[in-house]
Amino acid sequence: MDGIARTAVVAVAAAVIAGGGTAWVMETTGRSHPPQGGGAALPPEGAPARVPIGDLAGAAQASLPDNLPNPFEGNAGAAEEGHRLYDRMNCAGCHGYKAKGGMGPDLTDNHWRYGGTPVQIYKSIYEGRPKGMPAWGRALPSNSIWQLTSYIESLGGSFPPAQYHAGMQGDLGDQGAGTQGAGKGKNDK
Amino acid sequence: MPSDRLAGGKPLSRKGLLIAAALGSAFPIAAGYAAYSAYQGSRSAAAQPASLTGATADFAPNDPPGEWRSQARDYANTRFSPLGQVNRSNVARLKVAWTFSDGTMYGHEGAPLVIGDTMYVVSPYPNVAYALDLTKPGAPMKWSYDPKTSPVAIGKACCDAVLRGWAFADGKLIYNTLDAHTVAVDAKTGKEAWRTKMANVENGVTMTMAAFSTGDKVFVGNSGGEMGVSGWLAALDTKTGKELWRAYGTGPDNMTRIGSDFAPYYPWMRGRDLGVSTWPSGMWKTGAASTWGFVSYDPATNLVYYGTSNPGPRVPAQRPGDNLFSSTVFARDANTGMAKWAYQYTPHDEWDYDGVNEHMLLNIPWQGQRRDVLVHLDRNGFAYTIDRRTGQVLVAGQYGYQNWSSGIDLRTGRPIVRPEMEPKIGQKLERVCPPDIGTKDWQPPAFSPRTGLVYAGIFNICMDLTDHAVSYIPGTPYDGMEMKRYPASGGNWGAFIAWDPVRGRKLWEIPEKFMVMSGVVATAGDLVFYGTVDGWFRAVDAWSGKVLWSQKLSSGIIGQPITYQGPDGRQYVAVFAGVGGAAMVSKDEPGFPPRGGTLYVFSIDGQSPSSSAGMLVTSPSGTASLSDETQQGRH
Fold first, then answer.
1. Are strands B547-552 and B113-115 parallel, antiparallel or unpaired?
2. Domains assigned to chain A
3. Given this model, what pLDDT does residue B381 score?
4. pTM for the full model?
5. Complex ipTM
6. What CATH number corresponds to the domain at position B248?
7. Per the structure, how many domains does chain B have?
8. Which residues of B are catalytic?
9. How far apart are CA B196 and CA B242, in angstroms?
């Protein structure tokens, strides 16, 4: 597994260089680290890894940082930078330039197979998902993935950090944090 | 001049108008055809009317009339069945005889095969196969086979997790799985005979095309024109699955399998390593030219014909040049894969028009002589009739609305591009017609040697297009096209047409609210069958275009209808209902149906061994696929 993952990283890096994309990747990385304005510290390395994809059983529930907030919360520039990354890393190719879905799912609605809180979205980007979502954790620095998360949060379909269990239990329906977004409840997949 | 009308189309004559009125929903456009009028005049006579065009075909391998052994029924890709039990006089009595759900919900673009007394169906992802016993009530399952296709492939497929059919050869069903393997299954037992890995799905290579077989070979190719893949067609040994040759769509001549006997008709396609030199440095490596349409075969010359996809990335500003051999038809020797000739339909494809649509092999009267041709309705809006020995374009007629070109220059073979329709990065270009999926997509037409006409489902759509610069990152789209698609006119997303491949004219057209993205079958009963994206399955008079019968099915129809004769002697017509694929571009339209995955089988009055009054019978059956994605319902 590690071998494959390493090969993939090298391939991405090589391809970006081959494609003449080095400049913007470096630029993106340099400019966004450390976070502009907000000055929020990134969560400790490995904290998101302790947030499970599955639901919880027994006493383990209490010890996990499932309400981990986005360190860029309140940082308007983060969503903008995330949007830039979203286009540049070809996220738009699958999820659409308006994030309404295409090859991949709609990111603006309230349906989240792998969870809609910031840390869950972070994990989906970092780890990848089994139906063709690549694992970006090997190609992008942590702050870039949080910025991508900020952008997705800005689309209105995500859930607040404290709603982790409500989302998992199906309590939110169309009433997630995204209700401020336009046209909620009209997106079915 | 771009035009909503056919190039060269004549206004309807008074006589034409009378015919139009008599035909109800059909609209003869090039009325006044002498032969057509003659047919109308002699209708009371019992004699079969003469073909309207004189076009014929070779129906090799001449399979038994009641069977449907390959996806297009014959090497020439006519999809013509010699069955005539169901005909214009009784088609209105068609009713459902029985149905079969394969348990999957992605777009159902394939068709069943009928070999002997067994029907074989294969599903979209996860590509589960079934054998159904046609001799027993209820057509019970003989076996099911699950290739355990990797779910990673779902997100790498541009246009839904589809499969467009399969091949039968050497006692085996041979097909492509979405995760870029080719598998062979013993038709008797349902056991896997071999499995060949063709590519790495993690890099965005999927396989959706219908495998095609002739002799001891099966031909397969890759999808991924939106993923910066390297495109190819490969020949495998049907006995072992061993790869015999692989011909790439781009690259140096040794990769594209171009040698000294390569003789394209047009000089601009001749030269050394054009698959490299018509690209900016190195970009051919991610230049796509993949192979996801149908393959046809001419036994007289041992040549296979197929088309290649759009170039990658889809943003043309990033790849100046003709980008050979994308959006191109190749004629290749079936034994060696060496190219005999090629013709690029859309040089430097700027709109994702591809060249993958089928090549129907017909023989036509041409200036007093017989010419062996291929007929190809390209996504770019032009229908080509090309000499299949030389690659010379004889006819290039507009079969639907387009505005990117003012015509094909038959002297050079090149389209005349309207400069104002060329996209620029970051600038929104409004009303480009057709959009990426074309005036017609992969959905295969049919040909009737009785009428001499080609029948096709088409689109009537445009796009607003904004190109974005993209970088190549393996396993992600190398795409950059942001689009909004909508009907070109009149609120009709599609139509069904009859095409004269000799004169290059549309004879009649049936407008449809939604796209017509189904295959077509033509029969000796002078019927043509097609389905619509909103789920109507129709039978049409092959001569007049009059709709004789329609039936609403449970989901949209993007599958390929077939017809066969059951062991009970009855003629059946079968089609899958299961919307998906590129039809999803209209999913926001009111009336767009939910997905599904049900095969419908029709017969006169719905009669079959599967139903009768007071019937109390069941048949022993094999076990359904227990895949998580099908029987378990865990998607």
1. unpaired
2. 2-55+64-180 (1.10.760.10)
3. 98
4. 0.89
5. 0.88
6. 2.140.10.10
7. 1
8. 226, 310, 352
9. 7
